[in-house]
Write a structure and sequence with these properties.
heterodimer, A: mainly beta, B: mainly beta, 7-stranded mixed β-sheet
């Protein structure tokens, strides 16, 4: 099975950098994704790591280390609108591209 | 920009009643999914659907649940006899079959189901 753990809540200041960690136990997966969800909204895709290393998309970067069973999402130049929940998710091997989501991290950006 | 749409946005029903949640996936997508999210919890996979049949389903997706693609655009989730614990936000998602966005699932805005 798959289990993905994230910190429940992170607080940071506008303009700062924040890292949201995701540690996992899984029998095998194709890649690690990150989704953003504002209160009452739908999950929105942010990034995908198929391979180990860093993927950068604007202010957001995501990192994966399969040997450490660990990944993270890095948000730079934080803005108030980044206040949301962030979920890591894996696509298990042999599956229909379904996503198994982590427990989610609520990010609060303060002025 | 194309998007997944869902109706209704909110559905209130009595325990034991049947509900049908509707979704219109992005038009050139071929893979469809239903997820649910109980308030304050993580998103959970229910079922995946491709080529007019279920590809995979979770333990949550028992005999009370069914999915259908009744025409070329709609994708529905039916709960035959709702229980209190079915109260959740239900998200439909779709993804393309090829290209750069192969690993991107596009989620609809969700239907909030409240079972009384």
């Amino acid at each position: 099975g798959q289990s993905l753990e994230q910190p429940s809540e992170v607080t940071a200041v506008e303009g700062a950098i924040v890292q949201i960690n995701c540690t996992y136990q899984t029998s095998g997966f194709y890649g690690l994704s990150w989704y953003q969800q504002h209160d009452g909204g739908a999950p929105t895709f942010l990034s995908y790591n198929a391979l180990d290393g860093l993927e950068e998309t604007g202010r957001f970067s995501s990192f994966l280390s399969r040997s450490d069973s660990y990944g993270y999402l890095l948000l730079q130049e934080l803005q108030m609108k980044d206040s949301a929940s962030y979920f890591c998710a894996v696509r298990p091997r042999g599956s229909s591209y379904k996503l198994i989501f982590g427990s989610g991290t609520r990010l609060l950006v303060r002025p | 920009e194309p998007e997944v749409t869902q109706t209704p946005s909110h559905q209130v029903t009595q325990m034991g009643q049947e509900v049908i949640l509707r979704c219109v996936p992005i038009s050139n997508h071929l893979y469809f999914y239903w997820y649910r999210q109980i308030l304050g919890q993580k998103v959970e996979f229910l079922v995946s659907f491709y080529n007019n049949e279920i590809s995979e389903k979770s333990e949550i997706f028992d005999d009370q649940f069914s999915v259908e693609r009744p025409d070329g655009s709609n994708f529905t989730l039916k709960i035959r006899s709702t229980k209190l614990e079915d109260s959740a936000m239900y998200f439909c998602a779709s993804r393309p079959s090829s290209g750069r966005e192969l690993n991107t699932q596009y989620f609809g805005p969700g239907t909030r189901l409240t079972v009384l």
